[in-house]
Amino acid sequence: MSSIVPEHGIVRNEVNDGWYVLPTKSGHSPKPFFDVSYRGDSSASYAAAKEFNAMLRPYKSRINNYCRPRRNKSHPDLPIGITLAIRARQGKNADGVVYNFKVSIFNGKSTTVYIGTEKTWLQNYDSKLKKAIDVRRRFREPLLKAECN
Q1: Which residue has the higher pLDDT, 75 or 83?
Q2: CA separation, residue 94 to residues 68, 69, 87, 89, 90 (Å)
Q3: Is the pLDDT higher at 117 or at 60?
Q4: Burial (0-12, 13-18, 19+ Cβ within 10 Å), 32
Q5: Which residue, 11, 140, 10, is CA-closest to 69?
Q6: pLDDT at 66
């Protein structure tokens, strides 16, 4: 039983000794596949649950709402995954704003690349944009290599 890794939509209930296929629509109950119905064999009940799940979910894997990379609409000249972040300075002598590039790394995380203050950000913009693109590429390369293997 421990060797079975359930696919999306199937969960194991240890209390009832069975597999449940989660519904695709709200308001419906999960469909149970108890081991007792399959001579106590959890792999046989999982096979039946997997077959039923394939009818409910004909797609190969989980469908996410964000299938396309998001783009910064206020600055369309920036590459995908890099946005310009402007924030007010914080602290005791907080005057003006600070400019950063917010670089989205995968798995919903991001990092920032400092550009400068109100007086220096325009001079540093091009070099810091190259740095932000390099940061994104460095984080992305291992993930792409892992996908290909």
Answers
A1: 83
A2: 38, 35, 11, 5, 5
A3: 117
A4: middle
A5: 140
A6: 45
**Which element (helix H / strand E) includes 106?**
none
Q: Which long-range CB contacts under 8 A does 36-45 form with residues at least 24 apart?
A: 42/1, 42/4, 42/17, 43/1, 43/4, 45/18, 45/19
Residue keyed to tokens 């629509």: 25
**Nearest CA among 85, 141, 144 for reference residue 110:** 85
- Please tell me which residue, 3 or 87, carries the higher pLDDT value: 87
| 112-119 own/partner pairs: CB under 8 Å, 24+ apart | 112/85
Q: 100 near 114, Cβ under 8 Å?
A: yes
Q: What residue type is assigned to position 11 of the chain?
A: V
Residue with tokens 């709402």: 65
Rounded distance, CA 134 to CA 127, Å? 11
Distances, alpha carbon 25 to alpha carbons 3, 22, 28, in Å: 29, 9, 6
pLDDT at 67: 45
